[in-house]
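dude i think i finally got it to work??
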Amino acid sequence: MTDNRQLYVLCDTNAAVRDAHLFRKKGGPLLVALLRAKRAKLLVPEVLRMEYITQFIQAGNAALQKATAELDRLKTFCGYDISGLLPKPKFGEAQALDILAQLEDIIHTIPTTSDLKVAAADRSINSVRPTSKTDHGYKDCLIWESLLTLPEGSEVLLLSRDAAAFFDNGVLAPDLGKEAKEKGLMLTAYSSGKDETLMPLVNALKERFADIATSVAGDLPVGDHPIIKAYMQSPQGAPALPKNLAEEAPQPAVVAAGELEELLAAQTKPFALLDVKALGFVSYLGSTGKQAVIDLLVQSGVATDAARNALERLALAGLIRDTGHNYLAVEGRQVDMAAQLVEPEMIKLTGLGS
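look at this
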């Protein structure tokens, strides 16, 4: 960048997860390296982070099902079974959280506040873009409203495959451009509708930061043999994305006060967001059967094991009470705060309060 303007990059779920497998391929590693080199930020509103994780799990499970079927067929050709090299089902959540933790230094999160939810709901109800005719587009509206809260003078590069929501004839819809400009934002949008990769955005950044782009490889290396390097049945860490060069410098032996706490907080942030959601569900209901609240969390896009673990953590912390068959909300300010946070989603899931 040629000035002090903060640069943010926002990639929709199709581009980030379905196309680039959460920035592992199709331009992802190069994008990460460019952002780190230029101290730019990957804009991930809280609602988008949750959607990243949910879609990563679904895409991973679909790929695993295809691989299982193909390896079973291959077994009849080659005479032996190599399906033991496949990962366990539901491996996607741990992988998604691991990748997001690796990217924590460049991610800029915008919490989903009650004001943002109301603004997104009004936009969706009134059919104001990015609402589309075929979809109420509440999530897109919530992401857009989050984007509009960035500081005046910020520059935003948006990549999306959703033509109906954001584009007219391949360019940013004029009304959205005008709204961003009125908020003091410099917004440029790129469509991945034809090129289902991150490359429309990455190519623009390569031209802008050519000195950095030439030194970064295209995709993450797979290894000598993709089958041998596939994830085993035991838990595996996510392949490392391009590192922050500052992390490779020698580290002092003395740990500064609070340093470890900050590192742990950054690594466990995705779990904290899930805990807040689980607390909100129990707080909203007041008293609920254990399986019932787990089912609601699963219905909202949370993996079963993750929902159960979050509720157990809350019970151990004394934030909810486990009676054996039910979870009860524990009186305190956190009950009202958490219930208010999840109210729109709970109304949608249960109809309570509508």
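Residues 7-213 form a domain with the Rossmann fold fold (CATH 3.40.50.1010).
im so relieved honestly
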